[in-house]
Amino acid sequence: xxxxxxxxxxxxxxxxxxxxxxxxxxxxxxxxxxxRVVNVAHGEFFMLGAVLAWWFANLVVGNPALGxxxxxxxxxxxxxxxxxxxxxxxxxxxxxxxxATIVATIGMLxxxxxxxxxxxxxxxxxxxxxxxxxxxxxxxxxxxxxxIVIAAAVVLMLGVWLLLARTKIGLIMRATQYDRExxxxxxxxxxxxxxxxFALGAMLAAVAAVLIVPIQQAHYLMGQDPLxxxxxxxxxxxxxxxxxxxxxxxxxxxxxxxxxxxxSPTLAKILATLLVAxxxxxxxxxxxxxxxx
Amino acid sequence: xxxxxxxxxxxxHLGVVALLFVLQFILxxxxxxxxxxxxxxxxxxxxxxxxxxxTGLLSLGHALFxxxxxxxxxxxxxxxxxxASAALFSGILSAVTVxxxxxxxxxxxxxxxxxxxxxxxAQAGYLTSLYFNEFTRGDEGFVLQQATRVIGPFDLSEPTTxxxxxxxxxxIGLLIKLALVRSSTGRVLVSIRENEERSRMLxxxxxxxxxxxxxxxxxxxxAAGAMYGLLFGYVGATFVTIQYSIFPLLWVLLGGAxxxxxxxxxxxxxxYLVDLTSGFTTASLLVVGVSLVVLILWFPKGLLGTVRQxxxxxxx
Amino acid sequence: MAxxxxxxxRGLTRAFGGLRAVDxxxxxxxxxxxxxxxxxxxxxxxxxxxxxxxxxxxxxxxIHFEGKDITRQPAxxxxxxxxxxxxxxxxxFGKLSLYDNVxxxxxxxxxxxxxxxxxxxxxxxxxxxxxxERVELAxxxxxxxxxxxxxxxxxxxxxxxxxxxxxxxxxxEPTQGLADGEIENFVALVRGVADEATxxxxxxxxxxxxxxxxxxxxxxxxxxxxxxxxxxxxxDAAVQSAYLGA
Lengths: 293, 316, 246
Hints:
The complex is a heterotrimer of chains A (293), B (316) and C (246).
Chain A: H1 3-35, H2 42-57, H3 64-91, H4 98-120, E1 134-136, E2 141-143, H5 144-166, H6 168-178, H7 180-185, H8 190-212, H9 224-237, H10 242-262, H11 265-282
Antiparallel strand pairs in A: 1-2
Helix pairs in contact in A: 1-5, 1-8, 1-9, 1-10, 2-3, 2-4, 2-8, 2-9, 3-8, 5-6, 9-10, 9-11, 10-11
Chain B: H1 2-26, H2 29-54, H3 63-80, H4 84-106, H5 111-131, H6 133-136, E1 142-143, E2 150-151, E3 154-155, H7 159-182, H8 184-194, H9 196-200, H10 206-232, E4 234-235, H11 243-255, H12 262-277, H13 284-298, H14 302-310
Antiparallel strand pairs in B: 1-4, 2-3
Chain C: E1 5-16, E2 19-30, E3 34-38, H1 45-53, E4 60-65, E5 68-69, H2 75-80, E6 83-86, H3 98-112, H4 120-134, H5 150-163, E7 168-172, H6 180-193, E8 198-202, H7 206-212, E9 215-220, E10 223-228, H8 230-235, H9 237-244
Parallel strand pairs in C: 3-8, 3-9, 6-7, 7-8
Antiparallel strand pairs in C: 1-2, 1-4, 4-5, 9-10
Helix pairs in contact in C: 3-4, 3-5, 4-5
C-alpha cells in the first residue's frame, strides 16, 4: 500500500481509538473534577463492561444485533450499580480523602480483576458485531461497524455535554465541583451527587468497552491500557477540565493510532508517559486546560 | 529519661535481628526460603517507609528504583561479566541516580500530582525494559548463572548463605533507618510530613530534605533489587510493573507507616497470608485487594501503628 | 544610640493584581530595638512582614539584612541567617511533643553553628529545655502539642522562635486571642527577649504596643503614614484620623 492510503487507514484506526478513549477518559475526568477522586479502578470498570457485554450478548442466540443491544444497555447498568456499591461501602467512609481513595481504588482494582478471572476465566473472547458490512475505499475495505463506534461515541459525548450544560442535574454537579461546602449549605445532597457521578463515570467506561468488544476481545487484564491512556488524556487535557479531556483524547488517540501504525507502539507509550510526567511537573493546568470547562 | 527510652528501642531492634538469626537454624527448608525472600523485600519496604511513613510522600513509582537495582546488577553481570560484588554496587548506584533524577522533577509537585508523576515515571521505566528486550529479554527475563552469583568464598545461591546475606541486608537497612529516624534529620522529615510550611519557617529547605528521603528510599529499593537478583538469580520486567510499586505501599500500610519495624511485620504477614490462603484459593489478587481496602478503611495506622498508639508509645 | 542597622527595606512594593498591598515602603530597623508595626485592618502589615521573612516575593524594591541583599533569598535561608517568624494563626506541629516542636527550632541553630561540633546532642537538649522553661512549658515537654490550650500553643510558638536564637524575631499578632492575664505574662516575656534580639511586632492591642515598643511604624494603604516614638505617634494627627476614620 502507498503512503497516502496507509495514512488514511492509520487515521481511521486512530479515530476509533480516540472515540473510545474520549468516552473512557471523560468518565475519569468527571469523577476527578467533581469528587477530586483519582479512580485507579477506572480501567477495571472498562474491563467489566467488556466482560459483561460478552455475557449479555450470549444470552441471545442467533441474533447478534439484539444481543449487542442488550449488552449495550445491560453492561453499563450493572457496572453503574457496582460503582454505587463501591462508593457506599468504601469511598464515602473515607470521606473522599484524595490519597486514601487512591489506595482504596488500587485495592478495588485487584478485587475486580480477581472476580473477572474467577468467574470469566483467563481467555479472551470476542463479541460478534451487531452489523456486518464493509465500506469499500479504492485501496482497501474498512469495517462499517467502526464508523458506528465513532458515531455512537460522539452521540454519547453530546449527551453528557447536554446533561452537564443544560439540565438541573448538571448545574447541581457543577455547583458541587465548584465548592462542596457551599453546595451542602444550599441543601444540595452532596453524598448523592458524588454517588451519581461515580456511577456515571464508571458507566461511561463500561459503555466504551461495550463498543470496543466487537473489535477487541474481552479479557480480564484489558483494563490496564485504557486506564493508563485515560490518565494521560486527563492530565494533558487539564485535571478536571471536560473540554480539555475530549480535545486531548482526540489528540492522543489519533497520534497513538497513527504512531503505532508507523512506529513501535511501545516507544509511543514511553514518550506519552514521559510527556504526562513533564506536563504535571511544568504545566499542572494541562496543555489544553487553561480555561476550565 | 530520654536516654533510657532510646536504649529500649535499640535493644528491641537488635533483638529482632538476633531472633531472625536464630530462626535460620530452626526453620524448615520451605520457610527458610520464604523468610529469605521476605527479608530482601522487607528491606525494600523499609526504605519506602522512610519516604511514605516519615516524610509523608506517597510514591506510586518505587518499582522503578527496585528495577534499577535489579537491572543495574543483572545487566552488567550478563553483558560485561562483572563480578557479583561490583554488580551489587552498580545496582545501588543505578537506583540512586534514577531516584535523583525522578526526585528533581517529581518533587516540584505535591499530593495527587506527585503520586501520578511517580507512577508515570515507573511506567515509562517498565515500557523501556520491554522496548530494549534485546538486552533485557522483556517479560521473559533472564537467569543469572549460578556460577556467577558468588562473592568471595560465599555462594549466594546456597540456601544458608542466601538467608544470611538477606539478613545482613535487612539488618544494615534496619539500623541505618533506626539511626536516621532518631536523628535530627529524621525529626525534620517528620516535621515536613506534619506541616511543611512551618518546617520551612524554621529554616529547613523542604525540597532538599524531601529529595534526601527519596534518594535514601531509592537506595534501599535499589539495594533490595540488586540483592534479589543475586540471591534468586532471576531478572525480568515483572519487577518493574506497577505491582512492585504497590507492594511496598501495601506492606508498609499493613505493618504500620512511620514505624521502623512495621515494614518487616507487614511483609511477613502478607507473604504468609497469601501462602496460607493459596491452600484453598488461587485468588491471591483478591487477598491483596481486600487487604488494601480493609487497611485503609479500618486500620490506617497498620499493625505496629496501632500497637504504638495503644500499648508502646516509645516504639520508634 | 547610633545602633547598627539590622534590617532595611528600600522601595518595597507588592501588588496583588491592581491592588498595591505594600507600596514603596522604606524601612530601617536598628539592632536591639523593639519595633511595632501598627495600622488599620488591610493596611498591609501582614503582607509587609511576609515580604521581610520571604514568604512572599516583592514586586519591586530590595531588602538588606546585616548589610547583605536578601531580596531573592528563599524563606528558609532567611530563617537560617537569623530572621525568625512566629505565625499569626498558631502553626505548631500538633501531633508532635512540645519537646520535638522546640527541638526542631533549636537544632536548626546547631546546623548553622558549626562550632557546636560533636557535643551537639547535649547542647540540643539543654537549649530545647531552656526555651521551654522561658515560656514556663518545661513540665509539659513530653505532651502532644495539639492537646495544649490556645494560650499555651501561642507560648509554644514563641518558644520555637526563641530556640532559633534569632537576631530578629518577628511576632505577627502574638496576643490575639489571649486573656488579659496571659497578655501580661507575654509582655514580660518579650521584654526579656529584647535583651538578646531585635523584635518586630505586629499588634492590634494598643496597650501592648505602647508598653513594649521603642519605636512605632504606622502603615496605611500600604504606605508608611508615620514613624516615631510611642509618644510622637500618639500625638500624630494623621495617625489619629487614620484610626478614628477622618
